Amino acid sequence: MPYFISLSTMSSLSANDDCLGWAARDVSGVLSPYNFSRRGLESDDVSIKITHCGVCYADVGWTRNKRGDSKYPLVPGHEIAGIVKEVGSNVHRFKVGDHVGVGTYVNSCRDCEYCNDGQEVVCAKGCVFTFNGVDADGSITKGGYSSYIVVHERYCFRIPDNYPLASAAPLLCAGITVYAPMVRHKMNQPGKSLGVIGLGGLGHMAVKFGKAFGLNVTVLSTSLSKKEEALSLLGADRFVVSSDQEQMKALDKSFDFLIDTASGDHPFDLYMSLLKISGVLVLVGFPSEVKFSPASLNMGLRTISGSLTGGTKVTQEMIDFCAAQNIYPNIEVIPIQYANEALERLIKKDVKYRFVIDIENSLK
């Protein structure tokens, strides 16, 4: 799947304005202004003027080389929303002026059973991440903390004109990370019960989707301070402090589904005991280990499942669902100059519930 750069494309390559971004230069993760070049527009590509980019915990991990594979200078950001400024000659799904989004990946083999089924995120040959990935032409991908991006049209999503671009950005990772497994495991059956473990960027979207699906939603959190907002602002039916043994015991075998968004280490046997017979726990966070007794699964015929973000098909479905149901993430809009402070606050869980960078008005 190589990109063949023709002579006609070479002229557009050199004619491209440099892209302005903010990059980390080393493991300190400190971001500062950085000029770089994007690849030229190929026939199937869309060039997008980025207006907003959500701040995800992945931005913390890769800017600080937590996975040991960071390639500097590193431009983070994979919750991208913007406006089409140019399209390749073969692009038929988008036109200049359209509102579009780009999520956690920008390429895949387009030929395996998963790509053919619209599940590019689990491409058999590995999808190419939106930043810090190695693209087909060998270049290192750079993310949405930047003025524009060039992406194959397959990995772009249509955002309805009446849906705010700032609100759309967090849907591209936080939103789809919980929506995809909820739909896959049929958690959209009205009247069923859902427990949401952890109330951050992912958890608050799980609550919103759960309510929109007609579920009875309980938030399980270690922070009592989040109770009022969980119930009044997000519309959860119940709030339980997960460190309170009596409250937890009262929930024994009461949930059809659990969405586990917590990334800190926590006791899985305790949460599994809250599931009804044949209940499902979906893990979307990344604790350092997952440990539970086989009896927690076997005795209750329970299922534990993992999930990433989502393929192109389900991602577009989620955006359309949010627009139709008036579901919006709770966001704090910030200028790019505040990005370093935002990452520090994210580590301290001091955000309600997603930072979104106003690229259009602050990146100069």
Rg, Cα atoms, Å: 21 Å
- Judged by helices, strands and strand pairing, the structural class is alpha/beta
**Which range best describes the helical content: under 10%, 10-25%, 25-40%, 40-55%, 55-70% or over 70%?**
25-40%
Q: Mind describing the biggest β-sheet?
A: 7 strands, mixed
Distance between the termini: 35 Å
Categorize the overall geometry: globular
Segments where pLDDT lies below 50 for 5+ residues? 1-15
Number of helices: 13
Short description:
With 364 residues, this protein is α/β, with parallel strands linked by helices.
Description:
- The chain is an alpha/beta fold and 364 residues long.
- 26% of the residues lie in helices and 25% in strands.
- The strands form four sheets. Strands 3, 4, 5, 8, 9, 16 and 17 form a seven-stranded mixed β-sheet that branches. A six-stranded parallel β-sheet has the order 12-11-10-13-14-15, with helices on one face.
- α5 crosses α6.
- The longest helix is centred in the last third of the chain and has 14 residues, at 312-325.
- The radius of gyration is 21 Å and the shape is globular.
